[in-house]
Each structure stands twice: as structure tokens, then as C-alpha cells.
């Protein structure tokens, strides 16, 4: 995997001994829900994990790279993007540590990265081999359950993002997403499964732009807001937005 062979100009430092702060960060990761720092340290040592720190703007991995080691982003932010032949970037997701990267890809029949990973900030990453991940799954069912949940959640996230690509404006994306969510939850009072930042990633827009549109739709009495939850006040107006 090119990730492990890249130019060291992109790397601040790499070492087999993982700093204590990385174990603390991993304890807040979805893969290690329910684990103590002591348990995480033991698992990482047995799996021979490797720690790498990257400078801001470093290319952590390229699209098409063989994905043989699971990336666990412990600190910082990575941008998952697709660069076309003209050099245009399509941002797929902001990955904010601590979070695993591409859990579903690691065990796919063609384990290659579908996106380029670039460090938006200084970032720290722990990697573990495919065999190491299997060993941890066999050793502790909690990790296996967390891993499968993360892989499933990421697939749902990307499927929703692809579905919403057909809508051109942010208001249309909100309308399409909220109407579908209302249908699935069987209520006009919506419990958003994502934070606003994650929802902005699903829509492919910035969080400030999304917040602005949501506030406008609340002011127009199309939606109402209660904390982080929203309710559909006028389903007809949302449906009309989809027809524009």
C-alpha cells in the first residue's frame, strides 16, 4: 500500500511504539466503545500497530491504493476526496478523529481505496494489518460488533449521499432527506441520525451553508426546530421544492 511507502516529506514521524495519548484517543473511537485504555493498549501491542503523524496537507493515501492496513485516525481531520482527470476535487467526507477509515473496504474482494485521503490539519494515525484486525475480532466480540456496525453505518452514509446527488440546491437536498426520513420514522417529528457537520458531508456542502438554509426554512415556517431535532411543518412546501 502506497500509504506505507510514501515520501517522508509528508510525514512528521512514524514509530512502532504508540504514544499514550493515542490510546486515550482510541478509547473515544466507535471501534473501541466499551473498552478501557488498558484493554486497547494490550490489543494494539499484540496486533503490532504502527503510529504515524502527518503534516497538514499531506497525502495520506491515494485513490486506487491497495488497502492492506486499517487506518485509525486518532487526531486531526482527513478529507476523503475523488480527483477527476481535470484535477477537480469532489469531497466525499470529512473524517474527524478519532474514527476508523474505510472499515468495509479492508475485507472487500478488491481491497483498494475508492478515495484519496488528504490531511486537512496535522493528523495522527494508527494502522493495523488485516490479519491484526481479524485477530482482535476473534479475541474480543465487542470489537467485532463495533467493526460491523461502523462498516454498515458507512455504507448507509454513502448510499444516502449518492441518492441526494440528484438534487442541485441545498434546499432540495434538505427536502429530499427530511421527507425520506419522515417516511422511515413514521413521523413529522424527526430525530436526525447525524450531527449537522456529518449531515453537511452527506449533502456535500459546508456546515454554515446548511445551517443558514435550515434557519431560513424555520423562519418560513416550513420546518420547526427543537434543540437538534426538527419537525416538518409543511410537507407540501417540501414536496414543491423537489419539483423546482
From TrEMBL:
<dbReference type="InterPro" id="IPR014710">
    <property type="entry name" value="RmlC-like_jellyroll"/>
</dbReference>
<dbReference type="InterPro" id="IPR018490">
    <property type="entry name" value="cNMP-bd_dom_sf"/>
</dbReference>
<dbReference type="GO" id="GO:0006355">
    <property type="term" value="P:regulation of DNA-templated transcription"/>
</dbReference>
<feature type="domain" description="HTH crp-type">
    <location>
        <begin position="168"/>
        <end position="236"/>
    </location>
</feature>
<keyword id="KW-0805">Transcription regulation</keyword>
<keyword id="KW-0238">DNA-binding</keyword>
<dbReference type="GO" id="GO:0003677">
    <property type="term" value="F:DNA binding"/>
</dbReference>
<dbReference type="InterPro" id="IPR012318">
    <property type="entry name" value="HTH_CRP"/>
</dbReference>
<dbReference type="InterPro" id="IPR036390">
    <property type="entry name" value="WH_DNA-bd_sf"/>
</dbReference>
<protein>
    <recommendedName>
        <fullName>HTH crp-type domain-containing protein</fullName>
    </recommendedName>
</protein>
<keyword id="KW-0804">Transcription</keyword>
<dbReference type="Pfam" id="PF13545">
    <property type="entry name" value="HTH_Crp_2"/>
</dbReference>
Amino acid at each position: 500500500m502506497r500509504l506505507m511507502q510514501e515520501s517522508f516529506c509528508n510525514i512528521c514521524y512514524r514509530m512502532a511504539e504508540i504514544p499514550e495519548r493515542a490510546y486515550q484517543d482510541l478509547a473515544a473511537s466507535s471501534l473501541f466503545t466499551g473498552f478501557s485504555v488498558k484493554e486497547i493498549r494490550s490489543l494494539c501491542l499484540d496486533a503490532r500497530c504502527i503510529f504515524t503523524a502527518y503534516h497538514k496537507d499531506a497525502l495520506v493515501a491515494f485513490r486506487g491504493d491497495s488497502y492492506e492496513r486499517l487506518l485509525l485516525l486518532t487526531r486531526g481531520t482527513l478529507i476523503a476526496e475523488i480527483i477527476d482527470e481535470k484535477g477537480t476535487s469532489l469531497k466525499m467526507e470529512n473524517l474527524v478523529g478519532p474514527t476508523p477509515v474505510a472499515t468495509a473496504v479492508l475485507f472487500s474482494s478488491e481491497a483498494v481505496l475508492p478515495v484519496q485521503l488528504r490531511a486537512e490539519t496535522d493528523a495522527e494515525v494508527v494502522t493495523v494489518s488485516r490479519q491484526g484486525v481479524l485477530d482482535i475480532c476473534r479475541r474480543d466480540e465487542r470489537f467485532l460488533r463495533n467493526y460491523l456496525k461502523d462498516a454498515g453505518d458507512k455504507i448507509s452514509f454513502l448510499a444516502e449521499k449518492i441518492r441526494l446527488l440528484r438534487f442541485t440546491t441545498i434546499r432540495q437536498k434538505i427536502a429530499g432527506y427530511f421527507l425520506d426520513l419522515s417516511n422511515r420514522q413514521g413521523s413529522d417529528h424527526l430525530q436526525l441520525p447525524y450531527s449537522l457537520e456529518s449531515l453537511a458531508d452527506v449533502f456535500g456542502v459546508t456546515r454554515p451553508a446548511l445551517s443558514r438554509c435550515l434557519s431560513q426554512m424555520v423562519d418560513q415556517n416550513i420546518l420547526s426546530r427543537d434543540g437538534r431535532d426538527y419537525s416538518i411543518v409543511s410537507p407540501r412546501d417540501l414536496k414543491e421544492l423537489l419539483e423546482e
